[in-house]
Amino acid sequence: MVDVATARLVTTFAAPLDRERDAADAPYLVRWPVPRPGGASGRRLLVQRGDTELVVVAPDRTGVSDAADAADVPEAADVPGSAHAPAVRFPAPWPRNFGTFAVAPDAGLAVFAGVHAVRAVDPAGAVRWEIAHGCWEGSCRTLHTGFEEYATDTRHRYPDSGSAVFSADGTLVWAHIRGPVAASGPDPEALDEWLVIDAADGRVLGRVDAETVAAGSDHVPHPDPALMGLCVGEGQDGVPLLWGRWDGEELTVERFCDDERILTAVSPSGDRFLTVTHYEETLGVHRVEDGSVLAELDTRNAVPRHPEADPDDEDADESLWDYECGFLDEETVVAGTSERDGEYGEQRHWLVSTAGEEMRVTARLAYPFPISGVPTALGDGTWYTVSESGDALHVWSR
Q1: 66: which strand partners?
Q2: Which of 73-77, 146-150, 205-209, 231-235 has the lowest average pLDDT?
Q3: Helix, strand, or coil here: 181?
Q4: Which of 92, 149, 223, 306 is the 20 to 30 Å CA partner of 350?
């Protein structure tokens, strides 16, 4: 029998963009780690991407609503304070379906990792720098000079993508791109490359062959700006997990976990990272130094059968972890089984202890109103969920 832990609503943030009117994605929170003895602490940014702009709100700078005592506030309309936080708006160089993006910790610069280039833009819309590269549309070998060249081409409607992210101190941009870098000229053999870029002026400081063939990728920042995790999705071929180190002169890369695990988070201390297996059955905690597994937890032994499942449904005997999970603190993970649970009824989230040599589920989280989707840990003892309509973001604590 698993214990139940009550989730306390800390605050609710309204989405700065209207999802239908602005053709916008759901908002999310990013919390930047800052190295310090015993853990990490950093500012939070509320981020939302629309088709024509990227909006960033620094909620910790203004009064936001403390909804801890509001037991039934599933929508942002009930919480007026967060809607009035000042927003920084970055004009988008291309629609949201054509790549990914990242925001600097001080919200002074945004980087758009597009189909043909990585472009840094300031809030006024000025291009600070740009690095052109090979096209992410699999059959295209053109080194494009602008989005307009393929904007209406149906072959480019659903391209693969790379990703970019700022280091914890904002001085570096790490970018996973489709080769070659335009300055090197066409190279039919060039596939994916991993770059370390000076965030101030766009100089490529380090560059390696990623030895991947990505459909998509995600970076996971480390508290140390010189370290970075990269998880590359190759479809059925696997999920390469790369660990990069920049010593100021050379970028070196190690490949961990035999392309079978998805990197999801780094612990507040930076000593460990968290993974979930490609087929979602097992969580793992690993040592950053060498990628070795410190502890694992399989759903079959840890998560009870969904109480609303049909007794004759044998598939319900095995739950699956969501691809998104993370550290609440150094020894506690929040993870969900939301995707599989949605087939049967209520979506469930779990607290997992990583203390000692074993991982174990310590409690199922109970919420004061229905939630949807995955829990996203912020590393400071809190996590958030996004409302089903995507117009509000709820921050929780134990």
Answers
A1: 11
A2: 73-77
A3: strand
A4: 223
Q: Is 76 a member of any domain? A: yes
**Residue from 158, 162, 135, 160 nearest 147 by CA:** 135
Higher pLDDT, 34 or 98: 98
Does pLDDT of 155 surpass 90?
A: yes
Asked, for residue 331, whether it belongs to a domain, the answer is no
Kindly tell me if the per-residue pLDDT of 81 is higher than 60.
no
The token pair at 244 is 């990069």
Q: The pTM is what?
A: 0.92
C-alpha neighbours within 13 Å on the C-beta side of residue 101: 31
Torsion, Cα 45 49 54 58, to 10 degrees, reads -20
Closest CA to 267 of 287, 247, 283: 287
> Is residue 396 assigned to a domain?
no
Distance set, CA 187 to CA 111, 210, 279 (Å): 25, 15, 34
CATH at 255: 2.130.10
Query: Alpha-carbon distance 46 to 157, whole Å?
Result: 28
Residue linked to tokens 């087929």: 279
Amino acid at 210: A
Based on the structure, what is the number of domains in the chain? 1
Tell me the mean pLDDT in the region 205-232.
Answer: 96
355 contacts 364 by C-beta, under 8 angstroms: no
Torsion sign across C-alpha atoms 93, 49, 205, 180: negative
Tell me how crowded residue 345 is: count the other CB atoms within 10 A of its CB. 11
User: What's 148's DSSP letter?
Assistant: G
Domain around 285: 20-320
Q: What is the mean pLDDT of the chain?
A: 90
Nearest partner of 162 among 238, 111, 237, judged by Cα: 111
Q: Is the pLDDT confidence value at 274 over 70? A: yes
Cα gap 298→186, rounded to integer Å: 46
Residue 342 lies in a domain: no
DSSP state of 366: E
Structure-token pair, residue 48: 């939302």
DSSP state of 339: H
- The answer to whether 386 and 27 are in contact (CB under 8 A) is yes
Backbone angles phi, psi at 314, to 5 degrees: -70, -25
Structure tokens at 120: 């840094």
Look up residue 130 and give its two tokens.
Answer: 């740009």
